[in-house]
Amino acid sequence: MVIHFKSKLLACVLGTFLPGTGLNWLYLKGPQCPWLYLHLITITLGTLGWFDLTHSEHKSLLSWFAVSLGEISLLTSWLTSIVLGLRPDPRFDAYFNPTTTKKINLAGL
Fold this sequence. Notes:
Blueprint (H helix, E strand, L loop, with lengths): L7 H10 L5 H7 L4 H22 L5 H26 L2 H8 L13
């Protein structure tokens, strides 16, 4: 099994600009990561709850709960991007790139 180099920048961009989709976890950990499916379920419930609220004059308590789950998914995705972005490069490489020889090089920036 070949493990590809994981870019910290790409993981942060996915989590910031596509929040709640879980694509940053799909990129970092693959399809076996439970956070990917949890994000997909909660963002779907939040979207369905939002659509229900727009058609029910904001009276459905279950829809408000679903929307809050979707919002929590968005916020945790943004928080994960911040945490991953601020993680030191050697620690990120040790966790997500344990067997690759390529390392993050920010000297060219």
